[in-house]
Amino acid sequence: MDSLIIKNGSIVTMDESNRLLPQGAIYIEGSRIIGIGKMADLEKTYRADEVIDASNGVVMPGLINSHVHFSSVLKRGVEDNLPLEQWLATLTPHPTQLASKEELAAAFRLVLLEMIRAGITCYSAGAGMLRERYESGLRSFNALLVTGEIGDYKSVLQCIQENYSDRCQFGLGTPWLPSVSEDTLLEMKEVAEKHNLRIHMHVAESKGEIQEVKRKHGCDGSIEYLDRLGLLTSRLTAAHCVHVSHKEIDLMRKRGAGVSHCPVSNAKLGDGIAPLADFLKAKITIGLGSDGPATNNCIDMFQEMKIACLLQRAVCCDPTVVKAEDVLRMVTIEGAKLLGIDNEVGSLKVGKKADIIIVDFEKPHLYPKTNIFSHLVYSAKASDVDTTIVDGKILMKNGKVKTMDEASILSEVQEAYENISTRKEPWHSK
After folding, report:
1. All domains of the chain in start order, with CATH
2. Which end of the chain is more exposed for a tag (fewer CB within 10 A), N or C?
3. Nearest Cα residue to 331 out of 236, 258, 261, 387
4. Are 210 and 243 in contact (CB under 8 A)?
5. pLDDT tens by residue, 46-68
6. Cα separation of 175 and 189, whole Å?
């Protein structure tokens, strides 16, 4: 069994006490953490096949992106100034319908590459291009899309059975909530309960959604509607939740539903600002998501942490409502809890999976070294990530991605975009 020791780093555990271990070390065998503590103690006890010197670095749990889209990367930088419903209309036909299988695979590989470079070790997204996802080495939750058609779910369950692995887990998801029939949602709930599947949905993202839900179903909001159907449970991850009432927040608290907060995308689309401070007060489980690369326009969980924190302080006129440690937990242990995998990842503890990143703190914007937690949230960037490890396997070391051919991916994606842009207008920005 391969073994690895990471030494000389400042270790941020993100466990119950948010410990900081200066000059610490982590010993890994196979996919799991076997030892963690002072470097001198671990070096006496263990001998590893490979040693990573994390001097001037911060060693921490891999980041969790709880809501991301893949194929929209082909529209990054295109139609930057549209509200959500108009932007969604530009996806007809969808990039997946215009792209060849090879072009779509290149797009997916680009997003996977970006996440590895950004220190994201686990993500939640719709299903598609599963081979490319698995080969990247990342951990994933893949939501199989449930459309307006009622079916027997045989193909969905077969896909889960054939592709499930320790790193790739599956659940169910839906497109825009008002476009899905009530009967379909009820059937999805029944299947999820029968097969113990998690559900990932876009919920209360825009005012337009709320108006449609009210018109069609007579509910004051999307959360109220999902509760009426029995879908507001602990198996639900509700992405966005920008337009929710205090009554609905209390319902979410009572039912145990979680939220994937996507502050940058919501701000860019003009959807509004989700009441993150109220979610925290209600002790709702919260993760952070980047959403798609076309509505963000990058995948950087450091950026999401900073913006999430600053927007709440600005809206509440209170610098204490959301703290650096709060959002740092959202991209680590709370994000893992949101996906139901906090017993395996999200913090650095003996026995947990070795999903670990090293952030290079030898940068001008991270000096003087005063408060590591503050610097990770307010000063660090995705480009500061030096090393990314998933399941004990090194995906990137010293800034060099080992599992993907970066130059080829960049070239293939540019070619794919140029090919697709000639097939359907409007595609380019005017």
Report:
1. 3-62+354-401 (2.30.40.10), 63-338 (3.20.20.140)
2. C
3. 261
4. yes
5. 999 999 999 999 999 999 999 99
6. 15
